Amino acid sequence: MPKFRPDLADIPVYVPGRTPEQIRRDHGLDSVIKLASNECPYEPFAPVVEAVARAAAGANRYPDDDSRALREALGEFLDIESSQLWLGGGSSELIHTTALAVGGPGTSAVYATPSFVLYRIASAVALAKAIEVPLDSEDRLDLDAMLAAIRPDTTVVYVCNPNNPTGTHVSAERLAAFVHAVPDHVLIVVDEAYQELATAEDFASAVPLALGRDNLVVARTFSKVYGLAGLRAGYLVGSAATLAELRRIQLPFSVSTLAQVAACEAIKHQDLVVARIEANRIGRQLITEDLGRRGLKVADSQTNFVFVRLPMAPADCFQALQERGVIVRDMGEGVRITVGTEQENQRLLDAFDEVLA
Ligand SMILES: Cc1ncc(COP(=O)(O)O)c(C=O)c1O
After folding, report:
1. What is the pLDDT of residues 94-129, one digit of tens each?
2. Residues with CB under 6 A from ligand 1
3. Is 1 inside any structural domain?
4. Which residue among 225, 248, 266 closes a domain?
5. Are residues 92 and 118 in contact, defined by beta-carbon separation less than 8 angstroms?
6. CA separation (Å) from 115 to 33, 160, 268?
7. For position 189, what pLDDT does the model report?
8. Range of the structural domain that residue 95 is part of
9. Of 33, 41, 285, 306, which is least surrounded by CB within 10 A?
10. pLDDT digits (tens, 9 = 90+) for 258-299
11. How far is the CA of 293 from the centre of ligand 1 (A)?
């Protein structure tokens, strides 16, 4: 065996879960629905699929490493300079990049728990000490506690808004106050993977806050509302100077040509995005209210998933739903359920009826 880094065994492994096909076979089911990975339940928009098909013939060439066309299009869409945008192979890659760029021995990273598991993984890879701050009693990020947790050696703080796995958000006002209070030398990464789906009136993106400062980047993705998780494109908004530093860490050509073409096309179809947001809101409300009526505690979600605490062990609920062809995510403290299509949501609720009976 090669001599691996001694700390490698301590790095948590991201477990993506078993495939619907494996589960279908194991349980002898006719069909299985996957409500486990917060994916978009709908295919990419038809013009996006067509654009990707056309672009496939050019796949013998490396992609544009500067993602120029996509940065121009995104800059126009967001009404910001393209120099304030940087692309990655999914926002996961960009989050990883932030950890590596400011981490290292003798540094620490602050983030909430439970929150997106990548903050823990990326911090461990970056050899930064993890400082995990529990959510408040409403399952929201406790920004006051996160601020208090920042130490002299802290170089990064991750703010997942809305938060995965609880779906909860922090208000624009509270986020702005937090951002202003964090010392300038600490990088704030606001992860807005689900921001398009947030409908609360007091939610606001941190993009305007990022434009005027060097220590804040906003991470966004094409994997969720745009339904492009399989193509891998995400972006950061931040100051040109900060983005240039982060770029040093990134491997060349990490955003494929097809991902760039797909993202460029996808943002042209905001009418379809609006329809998806509304369908998701209706499904989220249905699941939240239905499970709430059964006495289950469902966190107030602004995303395409809901977090449910149960009167049984979450692992048992997860297993029982899986045996009925519904895959959710066991999060230890509860289960996380992705909002699906209308039919999928109904199947989930029917399966819950049986499991709770
Ligand atoms: C909070 C959060 N951030 C980032 C991501 C990563 O998305 P991607 O790498 O597909 O852009 C996810 C994916 O589930 C997420 O939940």
Report:
1. 999 999 999 999 999 999 999 999 999 999 999 999
2. 38, 90-92, 116, 160, 164, 191, 193, 221, 223, 229, 234
3. no
4. 266
5. yes
6. 24, 7, 31
7. 98
8. 46-266
9. 285
10. 999 999 999 999 999 999 999 999 999 999 999 999 999 999
11. 30
